[in-house]
Amino acid sequence: MDRKVFWQKHYRCGLCGADFRSLRIFDHAIRVKQRDLFLHATYEFPDPQHYAIIACPDCYYSAYDKDFEALPDKLNSQQIFQLQQALKKGKDTFHLNLSKERALQEVIDLYSLAVLTYLIAEDSYKMAQLYMKLGWFYLDDQNRENAAIAFSKSYQQFFETYERGRIPGEADGILFCLASIQILLNNVSEGFRWLERLNQEYKNSNSPYLTAGKALWASFREKKT
Ligand SMILES: [Zn+2]
Questions:
Q1: Model confidence over 109-161: pLDDT tens digits?
Q2: 18 CA to centre of ligand 1 in angstroms
Q3: Ligand 1 midpoint to CA 20 (Å)
Q4: How far is the CA of 51 from the centre of ligand 1 (A)?
Q5: How far is the CA of 87 from the centre of ligand 1 (A)?
Q6: In the Cβ-directed half-sphere of 159, how many Cα atoms lie within 13 Å?
Q7: Which of 1, 25, 78, 208 counts the highest number of beta carbons within 10 A?
Q8: Which segments of the chain are extended strands (E)?
Q9: Mapping DSSP to helix (H, G, I), strand (E, B) and coil, where does residue 126 land?
């Protein structure tokens, strides 16, 4: 059974050169249980989000699967040094197990380590996405305080990404995230301002985020002050 769900992918650490294998999930084994109004998905076991971040078991350098091997080549020597220093501290703080049944705390640690990578790589869009996931993981962990901090940081990074206009093809998704986070943080009026902008900019499009934005609007209209 397990063999059909997981497979082992070989990686060479882009930072320290270590060879290792990491668990991947077959696409056919991914089952969405439900998707809420914020488009946040919950999954049947295994949750692919728990395996999205690849971490080197030796140096703890962590990144998304697609970036893992190539990203360090794009960093300059000062950034590499910063990352190495940050990971030294990370190794004292986090203790990764990287087994099949990933505990929520380990998933939180993995995403926190990946934040270090994308912070140093100055990739605000990926940081925004990581912090958003961290917000949901903290909510799963009943830690509302840390969830609020993570969502706020996600908002800052999405805002920066949007302002810079660097991801033009994904601006509708970014507007939807900006709105969602403000609503999650109970700033419903501010969230609605982003929904209005989404509606203005994409009113004649078939953006799925426009449809999702309308559903959010309908659901939270009464909470708007
Ligand atoms: Zn490494």
A1: 999 999 999 999 999 999 999 999 999 999 999 999 999 999 999 999 999 99
A2: 5
A3: 9
A4: 17
A5: 10
A6: 13
A7: 25
A8: 6-12, 19-25, 32-35, 41-43, 53-55, 62-64
A9: helix
